[in-house]
Specification:
single chain, alpha/beta, Oxidized Rhodanese, domain 1
Length: about 290
């Protein structure tokens, strides 16, 4: 059996099973990309579906939901400020993405399922096709808390900053410039150019997980971060293609390892790889790969 990270911010499958009828806990499945309709085939009882882009993004521009829009989402989901949200998904980086967005909109009580739906099914825990409904909750708007987010100008200004570690969480193929998107995408798209941001170090996000997609122990995670120079005394900026995998690096650093200065570059490679006037590194061209 795998040894896993233990944290108040992580919910084991058995903790979730024991809290299925807890009115102070709300389970949310984040609809991801591989199978956005998986929720309707089966899900954990009491779970509501948040399609990630529809619920977390601004409807008219590439940004996150406004504080007012977020408040409306939470109210419709039957969530108050005191409700503990537990996220899960068929791609666990979408959990951390939702956690990150909710943190920026001021929600405090959250957990991420340690593992994915495959683990839940493997352990023969309850599933259903019933879609629950909840009475609207009172969810007053809270102030933005975006100190864990960084934009392209901030990344560009800090390219030569020795106090910063820039982590690229993508696959090695994306990092060296052979692909723009992961190899399971049917079409390789997402930016005009391939490669990575100068100075970025590649830390493939799956190296942070056990085979069952639970998080490795804090000791193992710290060793992996330290091996690429991402130590707690540094500012940590993480990115990927669209910032989902980057948000996983942030979640681990801040909530599992206690790094005080962790941020996500949410424009990630979809933005940087299409910007005019910014440098890139494409190692596949250098090596003729």
């Amino acid at each position: 059996m795998n040894e896993v990270a233990i944290s108040e911010w992580l919910a084991s499958t058995h903790w979730i099973a024991e809290n299925l009828d807890n009115p102070d806990v709300r389970l949310i499945e984040i609809g991801a990309l591989k199978d956005p309709d998986a929720y309707y085939a089966s899900h954990i009882p009491g779970t509501i579906l948040w399609p990630w882009k529809k619920t977390l993004w601004h409807p008219e521009m590439r940004d996150f939901a406004t504080p007012e829009g977020f408040s409306n989402l939470m109210s419709k989901s039957g969530i108050s400020h005191d409700t503990t949200i537990v996220f899960y998904s068929d791609q666990i980086q979408f959990n951390t993405y939702a956690f990150w967005v909710c943190a920026m909109r001021g929600h405090k009580n959250m957990k991420i399922m340690n593992g994915d739906m495959n683990l839940w099914l493997y352990e023969d825990l309850p599933i259903t096709t019933d879609v629950p409904s909840f009475a609207p909750a009172d969810y007053p708007v809270r102030s933005l808390e975006e100190d864990c987010r960084i934009g392209r100008d901030g990344v560009l200004a800090g390219l030569d900053n020795p106090d910063r570690v820039l982590l690229d969480m993508r696959t090695p193929e994306e990092y060296i410039g052979k692909r723009v998107s992961p190899d399971w995408f049917p079409v390789d798209h997402g930016a005009v150019r391939k490669g990575h941001i100068p100075g970025a170090l590649n830390l493939y996000y799956m190296n942070l997980l056990n085979e069952d997609n639970t998080y490795k122990t804090q000791g193992e995670l710290q060793e992996t971060y330290s091996a690429v120079g991402a130590t707690p005394d540094k500012e940590l900026v993480s990115y990927c293609r669209l910032s989902h995998r980057g948000s996983m690096a942030w979640f681990i650093a801040k909530f599992l390892l206690g790094y005080p200065r962790a941020k996500v570059y949410d424009g990630s490679w979809t933005e940087w790889g299409s910007l005019v006037g910014v440098p890139i590194v494409n190692k596949s061209l250098e090596k003729g790969l």
